[in-house]
């Protein structure tokens, strides 16, 4: 039977119009393609936006880096410009030293004074000028420049520089009639912020023990307490026969050790090792220091043993808990007890019981008894293992304590 399509007027057989069906398919395909194109355009738009944002971010980062670099360069340039006079003075001092080594002493002194006029706080041109005047035979000028070096050592820029102080000291010791210079140097040493070990070595090496003692008393204080600081006092007492310096060194040592807790014993033993191996100090000095350290170590022993016990207990607990053997042993004992202990006991209870549930009683008794036995056994075995591990760890830690700390004092 022929039908007429109400939409397009086409005469067709069947229920649907073939023309309209084709048109619907075409429209649907066209719509899907259009949606796909729109989605693609949107995706491209998003990608372009992301690229644009990334480019803008990169440009901004580059701009900030450039600004930072320019600021840093400007800061360095400003600093260089502001300190140009100082750099020029250093360069002139270096050049003056080269002239001094070339035996051009007058030229060296002229350049040194130019450097001093630019930077009066630089100790080097004073030193090179003093050396040059000494070579020219002008000892008075050399002495005056040495006095100025001593004054510079009291400035903050040189209070931590033992190297400069040592060179000044050596120049003083080479001077004739240097008593006033030495006194000025010792007075200046009160400003030094370090243990003057090199200075003491220099004086003791020249057998100038009285000056070394004066330097020691002026410089060593509770702020500079140390094993080596005390060692110098004791050693000076042995060599100078000035008992007071030795007593002071010993008191410093006792006070220093008293203030230190057992947790820093490694540092103390390392310091003692350094003093012992320096070969600067006599056996008597080493023995006195060893004696005081051993006394303090005896006071620390209870704390050390307590620390070792706590560490061993914690480690033993961790190791025991990671072992599976206690659990396995517990299960084995539980199973054996179930077969040979709890099952017969359950049967006895079932036989003597008048309850209707008596048939289940042997099984329940065996299960509860075996689980309980297994748990108790596991805990017992784990406790034994933990105690064994803990004992072994304590022995190991005590041995390590002796090897890493105590032996350096006893040998």
Plain-language structure description:
- The chain is an all-alpha fold and 411 residues long.
- Among the domains are: 82-194, Serine Threonine Protein Phosphatase 5, Tetratricopeptide repeat; 312-410.
- 80% of the residues lie in helices and 1% in strands.
- It contains 15 helices and two strands.
- Strands 1-2 form a two-stranded antiparallel sheet.
- Strand 1 and strand 2 form a beta hairpin.
- Helix 2 runs antiparallel to helix 3 (105-118), helix 3 (105-118) packs antiparallel against helix 4 (123-135) and helix 5 packs parallel to helix 7 (179-188).
- The longest helix is centred in the first third of the chain and has 65 residues, at 18-82.
Number of strands: 2
The level 1 CATH classification of the domain at 82-194 is Mainly Alpha
What general form does the structure show? flat
Helical content class: over 70%
Individual helix count: 15
What's the CATH superfamily of the domain at 82-194, by name? Tetratricopeptide repeat domain
Look at the helices and sheets and give the structural class: mainly alpha
Largest sheet: 2 strands, antiparallel
Distance between the termini: 123 Å
Point out poorly predicted stretches: none
Percent of residues in β-strands = under 5%
Please tell me the overall pLDDT.
Answer: 80
Examine the coordinates and then state which fold CATH places here, giving the name of the CATH topology of the domain at 82-194: Serine Threonine Protein Phosphatase 5, Tetratricopeptide repeat
Order of helices and strands: EEHHHHHHHHHHHHHHH
Strand order of the largest sheet: 1-2
């Amino acid at each position: 039977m022929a039908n007429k399509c109400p939409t397009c007027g086409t005469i067709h057989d069947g229920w649907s119009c073939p023309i309209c069906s084709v048109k619907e398919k075409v429209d649907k395909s066209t719509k899907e393609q259009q949606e796909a194109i729109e989605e693609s355009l949107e995706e491209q738009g998003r990608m372009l936006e992301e690229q644009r944002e990334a480019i803008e971010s990169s440009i901004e980062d580059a701009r900030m880096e450039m600004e930072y670099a320019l600021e840093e360069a400007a800061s360095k340039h400003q600093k260089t410009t502001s300190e140009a006079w100082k750099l020029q003075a250093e360069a002139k001092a270096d050049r003056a030293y080269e002239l001094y080594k070339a035996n051009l002493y007058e030229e060296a002194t002229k350049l040194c004074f130019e450097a001093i006029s630019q930077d009066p706080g630089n100790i080097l041109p004073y030193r090179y000028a003093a050396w040059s005047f000494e070579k020219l035979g002008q000892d008075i000028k050399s002495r005056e420049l040495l006095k100025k070096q001593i004054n510079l050592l009291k400035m903050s820029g040189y209070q931590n520089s033992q190297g400069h102080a040592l060179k000044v000291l050596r120049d003083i010791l080479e001077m004739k009639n240097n008593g006033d210079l030495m006194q000025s140097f010792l007075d200046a040493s009160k400003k030094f912020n370090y243990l003057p070990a090199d200075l003491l070595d220099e004086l003791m090496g020249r057998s100038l023990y009285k000056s070394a003692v004066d330097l020691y008393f002026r410089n060593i204080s509770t702020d500079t307490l140390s094993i080596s600081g005390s060692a110098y006092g004791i050693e000076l007492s042995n060599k100078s026969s000035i008992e007071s310096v030795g007593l002071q060194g010993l008191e410093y040592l006792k006070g220093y050790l008293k203030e230190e807790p057992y947790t820093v014993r490694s540092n103390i033993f390392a310091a003692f090792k350094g003093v012992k191996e320096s070969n600067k100090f006599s056996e008597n000095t080493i023995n006195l220091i060893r004696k005081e350290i051993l006394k303090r170590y005896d006071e620390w022993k209870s704390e050390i043993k307590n620390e070792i016990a706590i560490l061993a207990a914690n480690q033993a607990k961790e190791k025991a808990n990671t072992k599976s053997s206690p659990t396995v042993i517990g299960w084995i004992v539980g199973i054996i007890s179930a077969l040979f202990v709890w099952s017969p006991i359950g049967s006895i209870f079932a036989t003597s019981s008048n309850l209707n549930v008596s048939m289940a009683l042997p099984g329940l008794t065996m299960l509860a008894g075996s689980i309980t036995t297994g748990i108790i056994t596991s805990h017992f075995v784990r406790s034994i293992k933990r105690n064994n591990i803990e004992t072994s760890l304590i022995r190991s830690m005590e041995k390590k304590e002796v090897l890493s700390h105590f032996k350096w004092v006893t040998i």
